[in-house]
Amino acid sequence: MLTCRDVKLPPFVLICTDLPWIYPNFIPSTCVMPPEFNSFISNCPDDILLKIFSTNLDISQFRTGPALEFTPLTRTRFTSQVCSRWRLLVLGSSWLWGKLLDLNELDQKSNHWRDEVLLRTGQAHLRVKIILDPQVPRITPKFFLRILDEEWPRIQYLDASIVQGDFDDDRWLAIRRPTETLRSFCLQFRSQPPKPLQSANNILFSDYAPSLRYLRIQRMAFQLPVNWFPQLRSLHLVGPFLPSVVIFPDVPHP
Predict the structure, then answer these.
(1) Which of 38, 59, 64, 188 could form a disulfide with 218 if both were Cys (CB 3.0 to 4.6 A apart)?
(2) The pLDDT of residue 250
(3) Whole-structure pTM over 0.85, yes or no?
(4) Backbone angles phi, psi at 238, to 5 degrees
């Protein structure tokens, strides 16, 4: 069994969050810090520690798949196991967990870990990412649609890519509801969208999304023009869209 006493640590606390994957036999719960490090950790303010922990949180920068062993969610879980103080700090910071909803990581047979991660988000804003194809466990799209439907007011970043498969479900219609929170919306279909979203009369967000800044949609028609277009900083559309309607929304069109 490998503990902190067996490892020559550089004089910086950040190394503690890297121990479980640098040293595969390292068990966080057995971590006993040498005296020369106790003072530094105990005196490091909580806001500094949270800033360090937050460097692991950008799920958009990590590829999803079995080859990626130490994802942001895994790193955060390891961080919460270093010591009791870090555990209390991490578990008490719901905004940390709200940024970790890469749903392809939450494909366990049991609902326990999925529900626990969602519970830890509290009422924080959510960053949700998912890739759907016929190979994913059946529970994954169900969990995604549950979040989309029940937690829509909290979703701040949504990145969903549907490669292939039959995912027809009326809960997709949640994206027609207004949203105060949503800042980034990426929805990509490789083929036809689910039946509830196949109408060209889709009115995204009920034409009300004051915080939206980034929009990327592939192969899903929706009604144009919309009131929130002028506020966008990035727009990427793939599908049956008339460029003149997108670029000149105030000009009458036949």
Answers:
(1) 188
(2) 54
(3) no
(4) -125, 115
